[in-house]
Write a structure and sequence with these properties.
Length: 282
């Protein structure tokens, strides 16, 4: 059986955003975590910018060099057979359309079929990039995808709910305004993280003119509830990676303080199974 082309995978991934079921998207931080998510039955895998950066010894926030980030995306895309979407943060070009286009050329060359592009400028005060410039970036990426023959799935993220200076209603209005601008510019899905109240999520789903992506956080309703609200996609972000690091810390503390290994041995995936997961496939 012929493997699907990159363009076919992009179309498969886009179709997952149109229901009727919510797309629960796991975010991998390396090739083996991506393979575990695939083996669990997820139809697509995303990357987590924080996870990829941490694996390479960097904090999150575009500290990892672009080429190192793209190397990790490539290894993940080559390890799994399901569609892969890459978290590219602000695209390594908060004030440059050309730099963002260059980044996404690398993403496509790495074998991924989607991206997350955020509008945060990385400022410690939590300001957002100029909306018009963000619209230019999305339009340029849509044109790039058309020229490359891969219908890239653009998940346009707005960090309106990260602005400490605004109250909830002002954040809601700004998120809706930006999301709809991004949709008009060519975004396929609209990502609004940092919101967990059911009533606010429901308002976002009703007011945004396209598939809505929510980020897992304490207090976020379960997938069945989100699906009824009209949410199209749920991302887990860096949560699984941070949970895994929590286990690593428990292993370290138990070994240091008690000289025992319970945390290490309970729930461990056997060595042969890991090797089987990474064995070459036809």
């Amino acid at each position: 059986m012929t493997a699907p082309s990159q363009a076919d995978k992009a179309e498969q991934f886009r179709a997952l955003h149109t229901g009727p079921r919510i797309l629960a998207l796991p975010n991998a931080w390396d090739a083996i975590s991506a393979r575990i998510f695939e083996a669990a039955g997820f139809p697509a895998v995303g990357t987590t910018s924080a996870g990829l950066a941490n694996v390479l010894g960097y904090p999150d926030g575009q500290y990892v060099p672009r080429e190192e980030m793209l190397f990790m995306v490539r290894r993940i895309a080559q390890t799994v057979q399901v569609p892969v979407t890459a978290d590219i943060e602000a695209g390594y070009g908060i004030n440059s359309v050309a730099e963002v286009v260059e980044t996404v050329k690398g993403v496509l060359a790495a074998g991924a079929v989607g991206i997350n592009l955020e509008d945060s400028d990385g400022d410690v005060n939590g300001t957002l990039a100029e909306a018009g410039l963000q619209v230019e970036k999305i339009a340029a990426l849509r044109a790039l995808a058309q020229s490359e023959g891969v219908p890239l799935v653009i998940n346009a993220r707005t960090d309106a709910f990260h602005l400490a200076s605004l109250d909830t209603q002002a954040k809601l209005a700004l998120a809706v305004e930006r999301a709809n601008l991004y949709r008009e510019a060519g975004a396929d899905c609209l990502f609004v993280p940092f919101v967990n109240e059911a009533s606010v999520i429901a308002q976002l789903a009703q007011a945004i003119n396209g598939p809505l992506n929510i980020l897992v956080a304490p207090g976020v309703p379960d997938t069945a509830t989100l699906e009824k609200m009209g949410v199209a996609r749920l991302s887990v972000g860096s949560g699984p990676k941070r949970a895994t690091l929590g286990l690593v810390r428990r292993i370290a503390e138990e070994l240091r303080d008690q000289g025992t290994y319970t945390s290490l041995t309970e729930g461990t995936i056997p060595y042969p199974e890991i090797n089987r997961l990474l064995a070459p496939r036809e």
